[in-house]
Automatic annotation (TrEMBL):
Residues 38-349 form the Endonuclease/exonuclease/phosphatase domain. SUPFAM superfamilies: DNase I-like. This is Endonuclease/exonuclease/phosphatase domain-containing protein. It holds the Pfam family Exo_endo_phos. It comes from Rhynchophorus ferrugineus. GO terms for molecular function: 3'-5'-RNA exonuclease activity.
Length: 371
């Protein structure tokens, strides 16, 4: 094989990632226990030799990688699966048929540019997908968040909203799910409580570090109504960023450094609540399932290694029972794995997986939960 790479054909498979228990499920009260996966699968058109020269071309090939990706997804068997960088053609011809056979249904949207492209090009545009296990959840409603459309609608002529935010065609995708009777242990006495709404939202936020203001604006635009929420995705933002501060604490200062020198205040005041004079806020009480003590990186390439993928959950009604730990650092070091993809690792992102226990609450009216 003339393909220059650092892969040794004798390199062993990485050891199984550990499961980290965090809490024990309740045995005395009704609870719904479900698992959530978040995974950026690295779509084919981005998996170039120029970008990933350390990976042999046969291992970058989509026909090779997609089998490994699907084996991973099926191995972990999450009840809710959130995927990013899924090409439109691959969603309909590969992911959906494969997962339908495993008892899932799913929704999908490509990035906004797909609307303006011919069929031949549109099918290769990547986007976000949400799959849910039909025995545990039913789909009530789905909603697409197009950040560029929101930017245009709220710009009020503001130059940097039009010139920086609007041209980026990233999206968020939301599925309003409802639990089924099968989802519950120690079923609630009130049958109505078994039909709990859960809003699952996934997003792929703009990548460029020079546009940290755009990342923050896009995240703020997700802003769904108040409901039990699982929010996950590739936020392309480190734990000390304004994006993660906003999601974790419920607020971010209007003077945050990630806004750079741009004032987005007039636009954001139309989208968000501002109950403190100098803060933008949201009403969710969110916590991140993962932190840098659990995993040092979720994205692992030659040029960048860091945490940019997250699973957030509503902390007043959901408790993490356990989560999937990191890939073995010893395996990476011993086998001189300088970046991924790798013949044994099928994306440059590692899938995240958390098991959540949700307690019943009085369901809010379904109308208006997704705008």
């Amino acid at each position: 094989m003339s393909d220059p790479c650092c892969f040794n054909v004798n390199t062993p498979q990485p050891p199984a990632r550990p499961w980290i228990p965090l809490a024990r499920p309740s045995v005395t009260r009704a609870s719904c226990i479900f698992t959530v996966m978040c995974y950026n699968v690295l779509c084919d058109k981005y998996a170039t030799r120029q970008m990933y020269s350390y990976c042999p071309s046969w291992a970058l090939n989509w026909d090779y990688r997609k089998k490994g990706i699907m084996e991973e997804i099926q191995h972990y068997g999450a009840d809710i699966i959130n995927l990013q960088e899924v090409e439109m053609e691959q969603f309909y011809n590969f992911f959906m048929p494969e997962l339908k056979n495993q008892g899932y249904n799913g929704i999908y949207s490509p990035k906004s540019r797909a609307k303006h492209m011919a069929e031949a090009e549109r099918k290769h545009v990547d986007g976000c997908a949400i799959f849910y296990r039909m025995s545990k959840f039913t789909l009530i409603k789905e909603h697409l968040v197009e950040f560029n459309q929101l930017a245009m609608a709220n710009a009020d002529g503001l130059e940097h909203m039009l010139n920086r935010v609007m041209p980026k065609d990233n999206i968020g995708l939301a599925a309003l799910l409802q639990t089924t009777e099968n989802a519950w242990d120690n079923s609630p006495q009130d049958a109505a409580l078994m039909k709990q709404p859960v809003l699952v939202c996934t997003a792929h936020i703009h990548w460029d570090p020079e546009f940290c203001d755009v990342k923050l604006i896009q995240t703020m635009m997700l802003n769904p109504s108040n409901i039990q929420l699982v929010l996950c995705g590739d936020f392309n933002s480190l734990p000390d960023s304004g994006v993660i501060e906003f999601l974790s604490t419920g607020r971010v200062s209007q003077d945050h450094k990630d806004f750079k020198t741009f004032s987005y205040k007039p636009c954001l005041e139309k989208i968000l609540s501002c109950d403190k004079p100098n803060d933008f806020t949201h009403s969710f009480k969110l916590a991140s399932a993962y932190n840098d003590e659990i995993m040092a990186f979720t994205n692992y390439t030659f040029e960048f290694k860091g945490i940019i993928d997250y699973i957030f959950y509503t902390k007043n009604t959901m408790t993490p029972l356990g989560l999937l730990g990191p890939i073995s650092q010893e395996w990476l070091t011993q086998n001189k794995v300088i970046g991924c993809p790798h013949p044994h690792v099928y994306s440059d992102h590692f899938p995240l997986l958390v098991e959540l226990e949700m307690v019943p609450t009085i369901p809010s009216p379904m109308n208006g939960i997704i705008r």
